[in-house]
Amino acid sequence: MAEKKTVKAAAPKAAPAKKAAPAKKAAPAKKAEAPKNEVYFDAVNAGFKAGEVYQVLAATGKAMTVSDIAKKAKATNEEVILGIGWLLKEGKVTSVDNKIILA
């Protein structure tokens, strides 16, 4: 019996590799921003805001608007209103011509 020679098929030549397209720059990740007008309503926060409002009014010694107090106290208008509410309840401030003044 005659033996058959087995011939391995030659592997097909690979096509030349295409140059990869330049990678696109990924957009910078967005930083998580804190909500701007978020006010925490609890007794501790209200007390601290009341203290800040009282200190600003005591330092200036004159009637001030909510926005003026907010600028001086470096707080939001909502936080100032929260503090004013606390002080109004205690009788420490009064309102004169839409301005707040120490009682």
Strand content: 5-15%
| Main sheet makeup | 2 strands, antiparallel
Kindly state the mean pLDDT as a whole number? 81
As residue ranges, the low-confidence spans are none
The structural class is: mainly alpha
Biggest sheet strand order reads 1-2
Listing every helix as H and every strand as E from the N terminus to the C terminus, the arrangement reads HHHEE
Folded structure, characterized:
With 103 residues, the chain is mainly alpha-helical. The chain is built from three helices and two strands; from the N terminus they run αααββ. Helices cover 39% and strands 8% of the residues. It is rod-shaped. The protein starts with 42 loop residues before the first helix and ends with a strand.
Which short descriptors sum up this protein?
single chain, 103 residues, mainly alpha, two-stranded antiparallel ribbon, 3 helices, 2 strands, 39% helix, rod-shaped
How is this fold's topology laid out?
Layout (H helix, E strand, L loop, with lengths): L42 H18 L5 H8 L3 H14 L2 E4 L2 E4 L1
Antiparallel strand pairs: 1-2
Describe the structure concisely:
The chain is 39% helix and 8% strand. It has 103 residues and is mainly α. The radius of gyration is 36 Å and the shape is rod-shaped.
